[in-house]
Amino acid sequence: MSIRALKVCVGTLVLATTFGVWAQGGGEPISPEAASALVASKAKDKQLASDVTAAVTGAGVNGSKLKVRTYHGVVTLKGSVPSADQVQAASTAAANVQGVTAVKNKLSVRK
Questions:
Q1: b (16+ CB within 10 A) / e for 62-95
Q2: Which domains does the chain have, with CATH numbers?
Q3: Which DSSP letter does residue 22 get?
Q4: Which residues lie across from 107 on neighbouring strands?
Q5: Mapping DSSP to helix (H, G, I), strand (E, B) and coil, where does residue 87 land?
Q6: What DSSP string describes 27-79?
Q7: Against a cut of 0.85, is the pTM above it?
Q8: 2-to-56, 70, 73, 75 alpha-carbon distances in Å
Q9: 36-73 pLDDT per residue, tens
Q10: CA distance 75 to 85
Q11: Alpha-carbon Rg of the chain, whole angstroms?
């Protein structure tokens, strides 16, 4: 875990315990453990997005117009690439990253 991610975790935990983070619609405070788990999940998604980006560019895909989003292991690839071959290569590279549970490939070929 990076220093920045650790700072975010600690900051969120402090806020949660100091101000009592309230759940949407439920009116019940989120426990410090739940707040910490939420921050850890977001940090894990951010790291996974970074790993997928590295894998996709490492597979020779031109990632200059590529966006990678992650949510609980599901990766969404958006943007455009120069060729149809790169659409498939990006999807395959993303799927092979440890921690990826599914890939939604929304890439298009640049015209």
A1: bbeebebebeeeebbbebebeeeebbebbbebbe
A2: 3-109 (1.10.287)
A3: B
A4: 79
A5: helix
A6: -PBPPHHHHHHHHHHHHHHHHHHHHHHHHHHHTT---TTEEEEEETTEEEEEE
A7: no
A8: 22, 18, 19, 21
A9: 888 888 989 999 999 999 999 999 998 788 999 999 99
A10: 19
A11: 17
Q: What is the mean pLDDT of the chain?
A: 84
Location of structure tokens 């790169």: 86
8 Å CB contact between 37 and 45: no
Position 99, amino acid? G
Token pair belonging to 60: 């020779």
Sole residue written with tokens 């921050």: 39
Position with higher pLDDT, 59 vs 20:
59
Tell me the three state secondary structure of residue 93.
Answer: helix
The residue behind tokens 């996974």 is 48
| Bridge partners for 99 per DSSP | none
- What type of residue is 62? N
